[in-house]
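Please decode residue identities from the backbone states below.
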């Protein structure tokens, strides 16, 4: 067993039963010139976490632990898109419409792909999901059961939508969940803060949070990075 120095208290985990889930680090949400930017969102907030998420992924690769990358997207014929989800959003820019990086949130289109800096390595799982939560209408539950995973570390975007929804789904299914505080982001900083507070409230009601350094320190048994002198 190992322990991550986390909030609201230490997170004990067995690396042999732990996986990383990286949620929706897709070009359309993160890159300037994508769907998120076209909707008027400040994508620089999301782009800033890419190197930190890359470090977390590298930590799991070094430790030899499973990594699952998700992408929120739909089939080209929209057969997995509920009418209620289709109706939402800006009328001029709905899922499936032509967007700045191909059809919006459609599998196979450039905008739906993961940003190249975080591309999956051979052997890592890439899971396309039609919902906000990664368990809905996907084989994620079966994949984790087959790998005997009991503990999940999360990163990705956006904190309060797809990340938090998936953590809540996982929590209800009996997984212990920890979110990388600096490996997740929102277009709305106040929503990120509220989501982190909510997750770890009432004795980790949804899960734990920790920094990528704290996660790496526990997984790789490394000392924390040296801090500069403050005097
Ligand atoms: C995600 C969204 N990935 N905000 N999607 O959070 O619509």
């Amino acid at each position: 067993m190992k322990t991550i120095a986390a909030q609201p208290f230490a997170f004990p985990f067995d690396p042999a039963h732990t996986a990383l889930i990286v949620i929706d680090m897709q070009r359309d949400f993160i890159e300037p010139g994508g769907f998120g930017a076209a909707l008027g969102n400040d994508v620089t907030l999301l782009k800033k976490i890419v190197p930190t998420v890359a470090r977390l992924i590298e930590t799991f690769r070094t430790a030899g632990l499973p990594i699952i990358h998700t992408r929120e997207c739909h089939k080209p014929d929209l057969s997995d898109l509920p009418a209620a989800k289709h109706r939402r959003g800006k009328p001029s820019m709905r899922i499936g419409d032509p967007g700045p990086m191909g059809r919006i949130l459609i599998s196979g289109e450039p905008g739906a792909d993961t940003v190249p800096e975080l591309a999956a390595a051979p052997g890592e799982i890439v899971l396309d999901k039609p919902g906000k939560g990664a368990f809905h209408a996907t084989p994620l539950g079966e994949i984790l059961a087959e790998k005997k995973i009991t503990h999940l570390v999360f990163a990705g975007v956006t904190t309060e939508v797809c990340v938090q929804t998936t953590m809540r789904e996982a929590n209800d299914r009996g997984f212990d969940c920890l979110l990388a505080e600096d490996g997740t982001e929102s277009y709305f900083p106040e929503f990120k803060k509220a989501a982190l507070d909510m997750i770890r409230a009432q004795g980790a009601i949804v899960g734990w949070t920790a920094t990528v350094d704290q996660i790496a320190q526990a997984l790789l048994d490394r000392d924390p990075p040296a801090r500069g002198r403050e005097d």
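Observation: The pocket of dicarbonimidic diamide is lined by residues 24, 72, 157-158, 161-162 (CB under 6 Å).
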